[in-house]
Amino acid sequence: MTDKPYVLAIDQGTTSSRAILFDHDGAIVAVDQKEHAQILPRAGWVEHDAAEIWRNTRDVIGGVLADAEVNRHAIAAVGITNQRESVVVWDRATGEPVHNVIVWQDTRTQRICDRLAAAAPGPDGAPDYDRYKDRVGLGLATYFAGPKIAWILENVEGARRRAEAGELLAGTMDSWVLWNLTGGAHGGVHATDVTNASRTLLMNIDTLDWNEEICADMGIPVSMLPDIRPSACVFGHGRKNGLLVDTPIAGILGDQQAATFGQACFEAGQAKNTYGTGCFMLMNTGTTPVRSRNGLLTTVCYQIEGSPPVYALEGSIAVAGSLVQWLRDNLGLIAESKDVEALARSVKDNGGAYFVPAFSGLFAPHWRPDARGALVGLTRYVNKGHIARAVEEATAFQTREVLEAMNRDAASAAVGGGPGPGGLSELKVDGGMTRDELLMQFQADQLGVPVVRPTVLETTALGAAYAAGIAVGFWSGTHDVVENWAEGRRWEPAMNGAERERLFRNWRKAVTRTLEWVDDDVVE
Predict the structure, then answer these.
(1) pLDDT score recorded for residue 395
(2) Residue 144 CB: number of other CB atoms within 10 A?
């Protein structure tokens, strides 16, 4: 046990980096945040500047300490959570990235995935995009980190030679932040946790180590990959010339697993949905990985040092909050993202308009990278209010698709215990979009179960803080997390069943339109 009063969480997200200071009750003491540039070199490509992200991370650490008027001596531990699947490759000796971060939304690796799938055709002779699924829990898709590393080694001049010579390191954003926090080129720790490693397509889901055969298939030297460690353990300590000198870096979780941890989903069958840039639902399946038969992912939920790993089923939706940003930035229909709710409330329904935001293809449960967005059902009656409502409803419809797939998988594996076999009795929700009460009510209506929001919405950062605090004894275990969790707001389903099904049926018709579009020029 420590007498230091706070735990610091670093949340390295898709659009910004934040530092949040939490006390023992899990309450927020101070926050600092800084956005970074979204680099879009061509259609389907999304990049970040890794050096900018590290500068911003340093800045927000300093900002949150200044705001709280404390220094490192008040901090028991640091936890890191991060945008998953986004990849950086850098020089071991200098810390210089060899290429921009390739972001999880990026689709440039489709041809690498196609090539790998074609190299192991199924019984029918068709490319097998599930050739690694039994080993890693994931199908071949542009979403995951491994093909992104492979793309950098194939396309950056000299990168493969330098990687094979041991000069380059690779990792997801947690590894980049950890390496720099702990000293960088001067002794930085090159490690990741089991949750982030489980998103690479390179880690054995059962044994939690790198699969050398798959790495060889992708041309990735295992030597450039980070050590895989439990989510709650002491990874290293703050560098000597930084603001967190000797402070233990003791927790790492990918953002969605961190939110699951922060939502206290520690029992098999409990689930949460996070509404952020994308939308991500995770269901705890216990200490046995459940292989999905319905288009979901098998992933590591968390691991506390000294205990077995806990697994989850995940449904990943690429576009949720980013659709609202698109409405704001590309169409100019709203001045701020929060204005979408008022605009949507200006009409009584969607006017027959349905939006399928397949900007980066469709993720779960379809896994169709060739899909493209569609706004269907338009008549002259439709106005900007109807479009705003269609934008809101798109997130809820996608979430229902994922939950129905999850319930089917859970039922077949005897996980859970809500109404109906494997069904949820309620869905815990978090993320910025949960402040939108119209969306949350429509979500409850579409799911047919209550939607529950906690008092602390920053569950991603909070989960990383909890993992770090448990590792150093600041909290005594997961029961402290359960005790700290408190319900903030609940939405009960109110829509009649016939209307619920009519709306969902029409949206599914719209989905079929997105699957008919193929643009061969989107990926390279």
Answers:
(1) 94
(2) 25
Report yes or no: 4 and 76 within 8 Å, Cβ to Cβ: yes
Query: CB–CB of 127/70 below 8 Å?
Result: no
In 204-269, the DSSP E strands lie at: 227-229, 232-237, 248-254
Q: How far apart are CA 334 and CA 237, in angstroms?
A: 44
Q: Which helix (H) or strand (E) holds 257?
A: helix 255-262
Q: How far apart are CA 100 and CA 246, in angstroms?
A: 30
Cα(283)–Cα(311) distance, integer angstroms: 9
Closest CA to 439 of 483, 380, 399: 399
Q: Are 182 and 176 in contact (CB under 8 A)?
A: no
Question: Over 90: is that where the pLDDT of 197 sits?
Answer: yes
- Listing DSSP states for 366-380 in one string gives T-BTT---EEES--T
In DSSP notation, 283-310 reads: EEEETSPPPPSSS-EEEEEE-BTTS--E
Strands 451-454 vs 427-430: parallel, antiparallel or unpaired: parallel
Show the DSSP H helices in 380-429 as ranges.
384-412
DSSP state of 320: S
Nearest to 170 by CA among 204, 200, 205, 136: 200
Listed residue (482, 433, 465) closest to 265, CA to CA:
482
513 — phi, psi (to 5°)?
-65, -35
* Per-residue pLDDT reduced to its tens digit, 340-369: 999 999 999 999 999 999 887 888 888 887
